[in-house]
Amino acid sequence: MHILLSDDSRLIRRNLINLISRIEGVEQISEAVDVPHAIEHIRHSLPDVVILDLHMPGGSGLDVLSYIKEQNIEVEVIVLTNYATEYYKKKSLELGAQHFFDKSTEFNKVITLLGSMKSTKKKT
């Protein structure tokens, strides 16, 4: 499984990499620190999973979701944000995110979710 971490916080990315790297089946973890790099990475490497922050330099995570939807890219998107309001949750899910988590209270749910995904992911 190839995972793209899109978050401008180096600390968040380091913590996620530390936890995700322990999950069986994770083969590659890439990073993007802003919206343009996230879109570029998705365009060229087609990750299996994108963990996406909503507030990043160069735009919004909603811009990334819009790009994925417009391009009809099949990717599992997990929004992980400090802006876990109903508005952002509704908008993220409308734009195609499959999961929406609050960084401050649901951080570990991302790891649990990824652990359960490995067993359902088809090998190509």
**Biggest beta-sheet profile:** 5 strands, parallel
Overall mean pLDDT score? 94
User: What low-confidence regions span 5 or more consecutive residues with pLDDT below 50?
Assistant: none
Beta-strand content bin: 15-25%
Radius of gyration: 13 Å
Structural class: alpha/beta
Which outline best applies? Answer: globular
SS elements, strand count: 7
Strand order of the largest sheet: 2-1-3-6-7
Helix content bin: 40-55%
Order of helices and strands: EHEHEEEHEHEH
What's the total helix number?
Answer: 5
Q: Span between N and C termini?
A: 10 Å
Keywords:
two-stranded antiparallel ribbon, 5 helices, 23% strand, 124 residues, five-stranded parallel β-sheet, globular, alpha/beta
